[in-house]
Amino acid sequence: MANIREVAKRAGVSVATVSRVLNNSDLVSEETRERVLKAIKELNYHPNLLGRNLRRLKTKMVLALMPNVSNPFYARVVKGIEDVAHKNGYNVMLCNTDSDPEREKAYLDLLKNKLADGVILMASVMGKDELTLLAKNYPVVQCCEYIEGAGASYVSIDNFSAAYKAVKHLINLGLRRIALITCKNDFISTRQRETGYRKALEDANIEFDENLIKYGDYSFKSGMRAARQLLSLEEKPTAIFAISDIMAIGAIKALKEEGFKVPEDVAVVGFDDISFASMYDPALTTVSQPKYDLGCIAMEVLLKHIEGELEDPQRIFLEHELVIRESTVKY
Amino acid sequence: MANIREVAKRAGVSVATVSRVLNNSDLVSEETRERVLKAIKELNYHPNLLGRNLRRLKTKMVLALMPNVSNPFYARVVKGIEDVAHKNGYNVMLCNTDSDPEREKAYLDLLKNKLADGVILMASVMGKDELTLLAKNYPVVQCCEYIEGAGASYVSIDNFSAAYKAVKHLINLGLRRIALITCKNDFISTRQRETGYRKALEDANIEFDENLIKYGDYSFKSGMRAARQLLSLEEKPTAIFAISDIMAIGAIKALKEEGFKVPEDVAVVGFDDISFASMYDPALTTVSQPKYDLGCIAMEVLLKHIEGELEDPQRIFLEHELVIRESTVKY
DNA sequence: GCCTCCTATGTAACAGATTACATAATATTT
DNA sequence: AAATATTATGTAATCTGTTACATAGGAGGC
């Protein structure tokens, strides 16, 4: 495989000149430039970026860590990240962590070992102290899920008011026995959505009922299970708010299997507006996050951190929207 | 940021010794090793892999190119790729090409520029000549979709017999007016699934009807559209075989909206067995590919190419399975 | 006691690019 | 015409870690 020296020799110039041509320096005469380009073509030369990156101590590569790349929610976020990255000459390395701290660490080593210039964390399983240390030494941006006060920037939505709005919508439909399907974890989205649910009930003078809270793990099956538990209650719910679309869809499937009609017997609201939400039958009412923009802005903030234009951590919240579909309102 | 020289100085040894410790060479005395490890810890030293990779001309990184990382079909394949890669000390860089030749080229430049040691192509949009050239110069494995005769290894399934089996299943249910929802593209899976469909009809002495073939683009909406077109026919189909689950699900949604029952009025079979296939209502009968194994084996073959243990291109076919669910058989 | 072998360690070349600095050639100013 | 500025190019240091080769010191054999 040809290297810069061979190109230089063939073009009858020094390696410096070849490098200048490669980097579009205007300190090269037109005639020389053409000779060099010809040599590059003839040798089918591709510069070895390991050499370049080593010299520059930059890779123009960023990591995007998430539990699962194929999670339909993150799909759009990733698209935003990539579009902004590419526009700025950066590549994105997508990383499945499977929510496994070991895997997450392994990927962060790529950052520490200088194979990437920065990282975007989505639903990281890192602790606050670890994150603080990481953010002090490397460019880091949290996206969607975040830890407050670790000195790391984040871009997210106001999960509290989004959940509040979703439950308010059910209340406005005249429903009062509203169940919650949530998860047992420490994500800020979980905590805030639960709080929003409670506050909406409280503001409507609906008494909070412990029995109406069931737990899942974001999976379809766990949504079905939670719904069945709710149906086994003496006083069954007339509405369900699930903190993720997949669990909401699982709940609907279980409801239908048990002979309940959605939305007539039980109305269901999800969260995230993944693409399947609108495909399902009935189409799912859900909270739509500006997924693409979340990705774009997270990447923009990361770029600023990388290029040193930003010292202080940013806290950015984007707007959300309640999308009303068949699972709560019969047309 | 500390480098190997500072570690060496602090430990009172040469850089070579530090390097030996880093690479677990057994040519280091226990006492020295401990001194070096102590210095590494104290300086919070992380070796710069750009230096190492440059010297070794290896990155232990492979690319996995696919139209869309979030496509639920590829999700499992990717998992297989990653598991095998990690087990062998490699990292995987997932790349969304959006089926855009430019994007694909940009990612392949990472290979040519030595930032990756090899590539796995899923549903590449490259032409045969390009692929031939690529495979001649770099380790390449095609996974799922492939081009025959380009001198590049591939791992896939027998799409012809899978489609044949799917349609045969419909015929065995006594259905004879069987429609096909396919795509207008040149993928081998598309061509072979169409051929399998035709052969199954032919073997059952069912006359082929041009009107029963409709085209989509793998999207949910295109599946709905195709189903509506089929329903507008004089002689409506009693069964639909779609070459992708998403289009099959779209078709079911449209059928239900038009008041048709699935499977009573129209039976539907998909292809791929994405996770949503079993979540849908009705759960979708579909062809299951060994997605995880496809990924594993593709990666194993790629590793052999990278490590030079394999010169000749491999052609590997794995087993598939027809999974019968509610969309064709009422329980 | 001398020679050989082995182990532990060090020195320096090397991977492939970029770039500060030096220099030569040419153009411009005075 | 001399002095200065500008442009084009080259030389060599540099980025960081790996590794071939050299070397020192000790063990063991004769």
Automatic annotation (TrEMBL), chains A, B:
Record's protein name: LacI family transcriptional regulator
Residue ranges crossing the lipid bilayer per the database entry: none
InterPro entries: HTH_LacI, Lambda_DNA-bd_dom_sf, Peripla_BP/Lac1_sug-bd_dom, Peripla_BP_I
Span of domain HTH lacI-type: 2-56
Organism of this sequence: Caldanaerobacter subterraneus
Record carries keyword Repressor: yes
Keywords, comma-separated and alphabetical: DNA-binding, Repressor, Transcription, Transcription regulation
Coiled-coil regions listed: none
GO molecular function: DNA-binding transcription factor activity; transcription cis-regulatory region binding
